[in-house]
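debug: dumping io for the single-chain case to check the tokenizer round-trip. Nothing else runs in this session.
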Amino acid sequence: MHSERIIISLFFVGVSRNAGLEVDSGERRVISSVSLEAEDVDTPPNQVFYFINAAPRFGNLQLKTESGWTELSAGRNFTQDDVEMNRLWYKHAADSAAAFKGHDSFRFTLSDLDNESPAQSFFVSVRTVQKGDIVLLSTAVHLREGQRVVLTTDILLASDAAARPEELVFTVTVPPRHGLVHAVRRPGVPLGSFTQLDVAAHRVCYTHDNGHDAESDAFSFVVTNGVSSRSGSLHFTVEHGDRIPPTLRHNAGLRLQDGATETIGGERLQLTDPDTAAANLSYVVTQPPRYGKLLLRGVPLTPPLRFTQTDVDGLNLAYRQDPGSPAEVDGFHFLPSDGHNRGLELCWSRVDLSATCYRTCETSGTLQIQIQRSGRSVDPAYVAIQVEEGSAKPGRDFTHSSAGLIQFDPECEVRQQLVSRRLDSLQETLLHHQPVGGELGERREDLLTDVQQQPDQRSLPEGHDLAVEVRREEAILDRSVRRFERLDVVGRPLAVLLQAAGGAAEPPRWRLRLRAG
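debug: decoded output
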């Protein structure tokens, strides 16, 4: 007879460590494997379950999940893996009921879904801290109008025996009238409550509303630690100053007849400033009118060239244009001021042509036009350039430099522009416009005439050339030239420019012009 022995090994799930936890009143602490550990040799930690039979009475069990924190109540569960990964926490409720005796607990049953342990309790010992009375210190703050001040512990400090700043809660009972208490990261949003820890971390501030009436402000609060409370207030002293420059609200200009006088009223010229009276708002004239005069109460404005907004509002300021002036546009430059702040003063350079006439012959090939800058030259300036054709056609009769923009580098005062001529004496206009960092001068236009150097040499005295000098729009030929015929490409006469008697006929010309864009 043959016999066999069968050995069956049984493994049961059980708690190998249940050391409990110690917390202070109101404290939140993790329950790790140092305090609670289950043993099951044939089951991984994430399949060893703690099923809660009774939740804590004076606190909360909290489990961190992928979606956030979850409060565990009776019937819920957590795993040994949650404990080992520090996802299980206990939070004591500081406002515990009168039945609280200094400890708390929760009951659980351990299971691997095949075996189950007897019910056990996990105990939490709570050290009760006597918070005592709150000591409150506040220091008045001195700030400027419109300034923001971050509250610190030097300004506002509440403390008690527990020394837990996160549990000292300030509740604003009367908000400030001339400013706002708000979180540093949420400007403009009133803050109803904050903690002493927020103050210590520089997360709370006060911002003045930039008002000009009140010289002080304050807000009232109640601070509590859950056991005792105390009322207080924080005061602010506001220093008023004029930091806002005046604003030019109206600058409509005038339209008037030649030689007329027109009153400048507030609807045409107006400065505004929230913290300055109209009598203290002044216009400092930096460049007077060129073709007229400013009149103050009927008398020409004399140095110092200044008038006030009250002068304008009272219709005491006028402009009188000089009769017979050739200008169609006039104006004056000014700086607005409130006695403390001035508007922005712009310093420009002046860009114009260096000459109003040129002498040239077409055989010279290239004509070099000089553009100069005067005045402030420490900054760069630009002026656009463009050719306006007359009787000459681009490509056929002349070519223009490919550069469409002339740049003056800092301290550069002279630049050149090239125009290449072809064939014969035709006219062209060169336009400068759209200045940047400068303004156009008076020499905005130059007139150029090219003379074809293929006349009938038999009618010319020896030793004389055919250079043509052009001034403005009048052609003045050398008086020694008695007869000059312009020829086309095959040598046929096209026009008689100067008769033997000395009369002048106007040749076709080029024109260079500076024009503001």
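debug: round-trip ok. DSSP finds three helices and 45 strands in the chain.
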